[in-house]
Amino acid sequence: MPSIKHVLLTGGIGSRLWPLSRQSRPKQYLNIFSDSKSLFELAVERNAPLTDQLIVVGNQGNRQLSEASLQKIGIEDYVDIVEATPRNTAPAIALAAFAAEPEDILLVTPADHIIKEGPEYTVAVQQAINLAEEGNIVTFGIQPSRPETGYGYIEFEGNDVICFREKPNTETAKDFIAKGTFLWNSGMFCFKARVFLEELQKYSPQVYTKSLSTWEKAQNGRLETLSSLEIPSISVDYAVMEKSEKMKVVSSNFKWSDMGSFEAIYDYLREQGHPVDLEGNMVIGCEKFTAFVGMKNSILVCTEDANLVLQKEVSQDVKNIYQKLEQEQSLLIN
């Protein structure tokens, strides 16, 4: 009998959250969120009541972190798919689909988002499942609350996807908001395993073929390196979503953030009661007395080996620091 499976994508480093997020402990495993749980743990617990089984898709570098997180929250029964090398979201989802039965419905979520649990989320997931049962590929669109330039957008009408739009500049984002026909692209999906694989084979046949070949050579969900390197590295948006004629969208009202910047972290922690001074300045990761002089809405991020000072409005630019350190092969990103 078909079941509903939660596919949890655990890849990604979170370069915009350096120096908190590192290659050895990406943002989805940081215990700075609700009740000292990581984003990974919160995602598992949030979707467990709505699904029948968990499929974790990760890589060799984060497998132990995922295993430790699942043990912490008492999850023992799950499918563990370990990529030999990251190949982006389209192959990762294909591997999960190969591991499922053809008629199983897959609820695909990243492991590094924050979502407020409650009836709004439950209703959105059920709507997506209903659309998926009809043979659609469903994405979750979030009602935008501001002209955000860090997210992609979905132009929609009802449940129909008109088109996907890349991350806009500020003026374009303001235009999207004014029109009222655009949603934030959450990167969450729902579909039958068979339907996704059919669409992947149709629109990105090399990704399908190479992923299948690698899966057939896998041992207990562990993929081997040589065949993995032959899989094209491509996002699911480019491989399928922007091409498929079976796309539908659920316009969702639940509170959501991809936690992809320190501005998002700032807003979340402030809501949780994390202290800020009278000028809106915040310290993360340090208990020492800290005073900000002549600064507003700034963030000081402290770790054992690096500090970061930034205005929260330019949080997206932190990735430039990470990229520079990466080019220099600095140990500070490990």
Describe the fold and architecture.
- The strands form three sheets. Strands 1, 2, 3, 4, 6, 7, 8, 9 and 10 form a nine-stranded mixed sheet that branches. Strands 12-13-14 form a three-stranded mixed sheet, with no helix packed on it.
- With 334 residues, the chain is an alpha/beta fold.
- The mean pLDDT is 94.
- The protein is 33% helix and 22% strand.
Give the overall silhouette. Answer: globular
Helical element count? 11
Helix content: 25-40%
Instruction: Please state the structural category.
Output: alpha/beta
Number of self-contained structural domains? 2
- Low-pLDDT segments: none
CATH topology of the largest domain: Spore Coat Polysaccharide Biosynthesis Protein SpsA, Chain A
**Number of strand elements:** 14
Radius of gyration: 20 Å
Largest sheet: 9 strands, mixed
Q: In CATH's first tier, which class of the largest domain applies?
A: Alpha Beta
* SSE sequence, one letter per element: EHEHEHEEHEEEHEHHHHEEHEEEH
β-strand percent reads 15-25%
Write a compact overview of the structure shown:
By secondary structure, the chain is α/β, with parallel strands linked by helices. The chain has 11 helices and 14 strands.
Q: How is the secondary structure organized here?
A:
Elements: E1 4-9, H1 39-47, E2 53-59, H2 63-72, E3 79-83, H3 89-99, E4 105-110, E5 114-115, H4 119-133, E6 137-142, E7 153-157, E8 160-165, H5 170-179, E9 182-192, H6 193-203, H7 205-217, H8 225-229, H9 236-241, E10 247-252, E11 256-257, H10 262-271, E12 282-284, E13 298-302, E14 307-311, H11 318-327
Parallel strand pairs: 1-2, 1-4, 2-3, 6-10, 12-13
Antiparallel strand pairs: 4-9, 5-11, 6-9, 7-8, 7-9, 13-14
Helix pairs in contact: 3-6, 3-7, 6-7
